[in-house]
Amino acid sequence: MLVKIEHSFIDKQLFRLSLTHSSWVNESKNRDCESNERLEFLGDAVIDAVIAQSLYEKYPNFTEGDLTKLRSNIVSGVSLAKVARELGMGNRLLLGKGEDGSGGRNKDSNLANAFEALVGALFLDRGYSVASQFVVQNLNIESADTSCVKSHNDSKTDLQILVQSKTSLTPYYKLIAKEGSDHEPTFIVEVLVGDKIMGTGVGTSINKAETEAAANALTRFQNHSPG
Prior knowledge:
Layout lengths: L1 H7 L3 H7 L3 H6 L9 H22 L5 H11 L2 H11 L9 H5 L6 H19 L1 H12 L15 H12 L5 E9 L4 E9 L2 E8 L2 H18 L4
Antiparallel strand pairs: 1-2, 2-3
Helix pairs in contact: 2-8, 4-5, 4-8, 4-9, 6-8, 8-9, 10-11
């Protein structure tokens, strides 16, 4: 896999640079030799942007806090190191003798940093689109563990997670009516999955009505999965 990625580079030196650890530079006699740390900085920013956009589009009902938690899990050092191992990056790292001798090829930090640097190198060499595609393919956003955002018992979030685990659809909310005075309004909202109404909610704000509709839909959805 890594060989295929290497061959896709126009500038092969960028690929090599992404695998160059600072310990290699420190032991090198070439004063112009550079480590992958700057590429790591760039790649980290690219990964964050790609994941943020993907999660924003996939989970429209998640709050900022939810999205931040989920992104943090996806881009954790452990997660990135796992992907780097699967790509075989450890064997290609350029390490100093000391770092290599102390197991540097299998250190999570070295692997995660190299993965970020590789993304940064792809961005510079092939552009955002190619780098973005690489990130999405390798970080497996579609099967991300959303349990980290379920603890707050948000019915809207729970409903979305349930629906998307069973279908390719996303629940959406429709304001049916606003009753009462402007000072004490009552909102009536329906939640739909596809073209099916799965629940109705009433509340003093649209958000409260949506939350009630989602709570009502959860039970119904579990018994009547929409097609």
